[in-house]
Write a sequence for this structure.
């Protein structure tokens, strides 16, 4: 079965330190990969996506993600965390065999940045 | 401003009632989606629509119904057959499918059974 895993329920970092939120996936074919962020009682906001090309993708608010095909991972990173980055982060995969209409979302990782 | 509007923000349902959640978009997107979000489970797809007058069941369609009579609108009805409807419901849209394009989300409707 096709799936997305976010192995950490919560990630805690100090402000100014680098952060990593992990994501691994299992899909058929070449994946289309996304990261979204959700603030309390709000919808999801798009951060970045990987379609093809450079394995390091840059997105909004200083976030970036590294695609690793051999490890089937797409980890989200930021060099210096801000308190305002505290939110719920979702990794998502659009399997090509579904036409892009059945995106699979991970369970989410809550990021807590301490001042 | 372009975007997706969901209403109401909070909704309370009595046992045995049907309720309808509204979703309107002015992004001129063909595809629209309904997701259910429960704590620790991520988002699960209820229904999606690729184009007007067409919709398909997602992974958890039982107890829900939708219509797509206009491109801009994709209302979701939570019927009395849905045994555990308390959740946060998110509507989304994309230009077509999400192969290479991201989805845009509404602000959500929190449904509570009382």
């Amino acid at each position: 079965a096709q799936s997305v895993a976010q192995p950490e329920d919560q990630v805690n970092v100090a402000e100014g330190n680098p952060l990593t939120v992990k994501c691994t996936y299992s899909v058929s074919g070449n994946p289309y990969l996304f990261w979204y962020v959700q603030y309390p009682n709000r919808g999801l906001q798009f951060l970045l996506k990987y379609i093809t090309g450079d394995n390091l993708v840059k997105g909004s608010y200083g976030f970036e993600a590294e695609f690793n095909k051999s490890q089937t991972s797409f980890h989200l990173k930021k060099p210096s965390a801000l308190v305002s980055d505290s939110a719920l982060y979702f990794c998502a995969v659009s399997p090509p065999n579904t036409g892009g209409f059945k995106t699979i979302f991970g369970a989410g990782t809550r990021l807590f940045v301490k001042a | 401003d372009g975007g997706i509007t969901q209403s109401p923000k909070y909704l309370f349902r009595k046992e045995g009632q049907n309720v309808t959640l509204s979703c309107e978009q002015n992004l001129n997107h063909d595809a629209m989606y309904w997701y259910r979000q429960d704590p620790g489970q991520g988002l699960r797809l209820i229904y999606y629509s690729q184009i007007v007058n067409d919709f398909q069941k997602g992974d958890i369609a039982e107890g829900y119904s939708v219509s797509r009579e206009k491109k801009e609108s994709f209302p979701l009805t939570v019927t009395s057959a849905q045994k555990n409807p308390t959740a946060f419901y998110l509507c989304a849209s994309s230009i077509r499918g999400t192969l290479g394009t991201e989805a845009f989300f509404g602000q959500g409707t929190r449904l509570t059974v009382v």
